[in-house]
Amino acid sequence: MEPFKVHILGCGSALPTLRHNPSSQVVEVRGKMFMVDCGEGTQLQLRRVKVRFTKVSAVFISHLHGDHCFGLIGMISTFGMLGRTAALHIYAHKDLETMLKPQIDYFCNGLEYDIVFHSIDPTQQKVIYEDRSIEVETVPLRHRMPCCGFIFREKPTLPHIRRDMIDCYEIPLSQVNNIKNGADWTTEDGVVVPNSKLTVPADAPRSYAYCSDTKYFEELADEVRGVDTIYHEATYDSKNIARAKLYNHSTAQQAATVARDAGAKRLIIGHFSARYEEEDGLLREAKEVFPDTVLAAEGVAFDV
User: Are 296 and 268 within 8 A, CB to CB?
Assistant: First the structure.
């Protein structure tokens, strides 16, 4: 199977600490690199995880709180200094372009690459990006300002060819694509070899949901139902549920409830409050509800 990984660049909340950077990650799908959120320090983390700057083709910004987008202007500038020529696509609330464009004009005059803004509506669940191998869909969340998550879905691939059968029936390479697309094979003696004997089923498409800042609400599980891996903010523990409700954030237990009810295979929790010197308590709370929970950590890459 081709790589489908999530590289964690930052999993802290609004206050940077010596342990965690603000929110950012790179989703690697079939050789393509998509950035999700871009807090301060993202460039350094890209260096640390050895993701090439030139490979980042698009940035998806969940909402316009600084810990999710303050690193963007610096990264745009660095891309220019490195001689980038490929366009950078940015998917975000329409207000980001209004705020960012004057900074680009002032600090990044003379860029040799295009920055293409794509306005998204955080209140709608819809596909905002699509190519031959994946699609990206928004997921409305409930925060103190317009905010959405993103679902990255692989598109189905063609069945795998059974090399032993191809060799056995001396099928020419020119016919392999036809067989992948469902054709049978007829031998010189007129015997029809069914497609099912010549192929094995394709790998099941994988999917990943990034649930940024949000308060808990039951409907979210329906919006991400069936996703393989979910990243969900877990800013607080259950002792601070009142604070979570006040600031429209979630507890680790609530994040786990979403993953359980959505039928996910794995939950990654992050966006940890600076009040915690370690997150073992958050992990324990989440595992009580959804055992297949892991902690996000800078520099860690998770397979989807």
Answer: yes
Q: How far apart are CA 254 and CA 142, in angstroms?
A: 14
Q: In this structure, what DSSP letter does residue 240 have?
A: G
Distance CA 224, CA 222 (A): 6
CA distance 29 to 14: 28
Q: Which of 227, 213, 215, 304 is nearest to 262 (CA)?
A: 227
Residues 27-83: pLDDT tens digits? 999 999 999 999 999 999 999 999 999 999 999 999 999 999 999 999 999 999 999
Is residue 240 within 8 Å of 18, Cβ to Cβ? no
- Catalytic center residues: 67
pTM of the entire predicted model: 0.92
Q: Are strands 185-186 and 192-193 parallel, antiparallel or unpaired?
A: antiparallel
Q: Cβ contacts of residue 106 below 8 Å, gap of 6+?
A: none
**Residue 134, helix vs strand vs coil:** strand
